[in-house]
Specification:
54% helix, alpha+beta, three-stranded antiparallel sheet, heme, 16 helices, five-stranded mixed sheet, Cytochrome p450, 8% strand, metal-binding
């Protein structure tokens, strides 16, 4: 990818909504060179693709936007993982890989971890209120970037002391796959990813030797089997791949959702004050935030045979980008789609957590963490506001869209 294309990709990722609007109004599908994919941005078309997994495979769901340099790929070769994961699998393999995650993120398991999540959320708010100089906090680093990692770490069974390094490794993996970086930066990111993989492998070996009632054990048993005493090298690679995927999905998306939700609520003072006065609106505010500025903007798919979508003929092997965020701004399903309105009448469901076989199994956990966050902030800091003069820049990725920094005052 040349420098000009890098710049265009960066611009697109920081604000993709104008592109989605043009694609929705165009006849047929729109080819986007920066993504090397046909863009699917209308609600009906996205739903059709999601309902036809036999025609639109997930095999390329995590295909890099920017292919790492050979030197970085060589570093990655020294790590663990590299096996099929749930977001890139289809059919029976997808169901097999998904089953232990669904069990591990069941309503009962999520309910059981909520007291811990509430305790940690309150402690993080206590900490930044206590340390906040003149009533000021950078929310992404002090809160949004910490709570989801701690909660998913608790569910999986990680040592709390290891969670910061694991969260850092997930962020570095995202940067390596979806951001243009100089070769030296790519190598450094790859080294961080490999270090994280080895940390996960140590966890897998320890948990296999000492099983617990946690998601980590659930994943190991799903790979090794309930009666297998030996943990082979291939088993270890498969479980580490599971955990790498789960970590990124389990904390980066929720971190992004917390950041964008608070941002849009505080940009419109009336809506923030309405939420403070009527906290029963919090569930509706969560759904509207997820719809309006979708954390996971979309995923790739590839056609398994010649198909026609929206009048566009796509040969077998054609990459498409499913823009969940584009569908969520489609006026045919969501009136006044570009407006952020927590009083929007309940009705049409958004696609922020997917649809069908690949519906996000962690959606309840994400919603609950956002609910806890909004309950805390509206009750304890009703005077919360955006710091004046800051330039809010969105992270340049279509995988986890959120503010890079969010300076708040109270």
């Amino acid at each position: 990818m040349d420098a000009e294309l890098h710049d265009r990709l960066d611009e697109l990722q920081r604000d993709p909504y104008p592109l989605y609007a043009r694609a929705r109004s165009a006849e047929g599908l729109t080819y986007v060179p920066e993504l090397d994919s046909w863009l699917v941005a209308r609600d009906a078309d996205v739903r059709e693709v999601l309902r036809r997994p036999e025609d639109f495979s997930s095999a390329n769901a995590l295909r890099p936007d920017v292919m790492p340099a050979p030197a970085a790929l060589a570093v990655l070769g020294g790590g663990f993982g590299g096996r099929p994961v749930v977001v890139t699998a289809d059919g029976a393999l997808h169901q097999e890989l998904r089953a232990p995650i669904v069990r591990g993120l069941s309503p009962a398991r999520v309910g059981a971890v909520l007291p811990y999540a509430a305790e940690r959320a309150a402690a993080l708010v206590d900490d930044f209120v206590k340390k906040g100089q003149g009533g000021r906090v950078e929310l992404m680093s002090a809160y949004a970037g910490r709570l989801p990692g701690e909660v998913i770490g608790r569910l999986v069974g990680f040592d709390p002391d290891d969670v910061p390094a694991l969260v850092h490794g997930g962020r570095r993996a995202e940067q390596l796959l979806f951001r243009p970086m100089a070769e030296a930066e790519q190598i450094a990111a790859a080294e961080d990813v490999v270090a994280t993989a080895h940390l996960l492998d140590a966890f897998v070996r320890a948990r296999h030797a000492d099983p617990r009632e946690d998601l980590g054990t659930e994943l190991i048993v799903s790979v090794v089997g309930p009666d297998a005493a030996e943990l082979t090298l291939d088993h270890r690679h498969q479980v580490v791949a599971h955990l790498q995927n789960l970590l990124i999905a389990g904390h980066l998306t929720t971190t992004a959702l917390i950041g964008t939700t608070v941002l849009h609520l505080l940009r419109d003072r009336r809506q923030w004050e309405l939420l403070c006065a009527e906290p029963e609106r919090i569930p509706a505010a969560i759904e509207e935030a997820a719809r309006h500025d979708t954390a996971l903007q979309g995923f790739r798919r590839v056609t398994t045979r010649p198909v026609t979508l929206a009048g566009t003929e796509l040969p077998a092997g054609t990459p498409v980008f499913l823009a969940f965020a584009g569908a969520n701004r489609d006026a045919s399903r969501h009136p006044r789609p570009d407006e952020f309105d927590i009083a929007r009448p309940a009705g049409s469901r958004h696609l922020s957590f997917g649809l069908g076989a690949h519906t996000c199994p962690g959606s309840q956990l994400a919603r609950e963490q956002l609910r806890l966050t909004l309950e805390l902030l509206t009750s304890r800091l009703p005077g919360l506001r955006l710091a004046e003069g800051q330039r809010i820049t969105m992270r340049p990725t279509l995988i986890h869209r959120s503010p890079e920094r969010l300076e708040l005052l109270w």
